[in-house]
Write a structure and sequence with these properties.
Radius of gyration: 52 Å
Number of strands: 2
Structural class: mainly alpha
Distance between the termini: 62 Å
Strand order of the largest sheet: 1-2
Number of domains: 2
Strand content: under 5%
Length: about 260
């Protein structure tokens, strides 16, 4: 679940919260107003009762016992009613607190779930990055290098075929100038001696070929067998100076074909 969905769901749950809080606060104000009115009435009755007790000898202001009992009874009832209002206010306050606390707990749970999802995504991302190790990258690099070698070999083979055709024309025409030009085309891509390659620094990730298990260099030829385990060979390692006509098979594949 995305952050936007968490936020949307949480805002939906808060839609009725303001109305509920407003209702509770209105009830609290109403109960408080009633309790205040009762306290004022209690003060009035208490003053009247105390004045009757202050002048017991004054007949005009003397209070009968029934009147005193009535005042005491009214004061007691009002105190009990005021206490009920106070209890109702406490219950409303607790209800309001629990209402807000419920949404706070939900927010905490959503945050915990969101953090857990982020950690899971981070773990998945790290596992994918582990799969993309330097070894895998070197394999991809080796594959690209191999494709470049194939292309280079095809280009050199085309150059050799052009040189061979030029030589045939030179023999027929007997022109020395054409012979020299054909020779220049034929040696345009000179062979590199294996010892020169071995002396050069070699990348450990560079793929190896041929019977000599060395990196690609100079002129190379591919075996025509699709499942050949080596596939590419140096001319010098298979005793070739030029690309043969037709299909060419490496010594191992040729031996297997003869057995069949």
């Amino acid at each position: 679940m995305t952050t936007a969905l968490y936020l949307e769901h949480y805002l939906d749950s808060l839609e009725h919260l303001p109305i509920e809080l407003q209702r509770n606060f209105t009830l609290l104000r109403d109960l408080d107003a009633r309790a205040q009115n009762l306290m004022q009435t209690i003060d009035k009755y208490a003053t009247e009762y105390l004045e009757g007790l202050a002048y017991p000898t004054n007949k005009s202001s003397s209070m009968s016992s029934d009147k005193k009992k009535e005042l005491i009874s009214n004061i007691q009832k009002m105190f009990n009613k005021s206490k009920e209002y106070g209890d109702d206010k406490v219950q409303l306050a607790i209800q309001t607190y629990e209402l807000v606390d419920k949404h706070i707990r939900r927010l905490d749970n959503d945050l915990a779930r969101f953090e857990a999802e982020i950690q899971e995504k981070a773990a998945a991302s790290s596992s994918r990055s582990v799969e993309e190790t330097p070894g895998n990258k070197s394999k991809n690099r080796s594959k690209k290098t191999k494709e470049k070698d194939k292309k280079r070999s095809r280009d050199s083979s085309e150059d050799e075929s052009v040189a061979a055709k030029t030589k045939k024309k030179q023999k027929r025409g007997g022109s020395k100038a054409q012979t020299a030009k054909a020779a220049e085309v034929a040696i345009a891509a000179p062979l590199t001696h294996p010892s020169d390659v071995l002396d050069m620094p070699v990348d450990p990730n560079e793929p190896t070929y041929c019977l000599c298990h060395q990196v690609s260099y100079g002129e190379m030829i591919a075996c025509e067998v699709p499942d050949c385990p080596i596939e590419w060979f140096h001319f010098a390692c298979v005793n070739l100076t030029t690309k043969p006509k037709g299909k060419w098979y490496c010594p191992k594949c040729l031996e297997e074909r003869k057995k069949k």
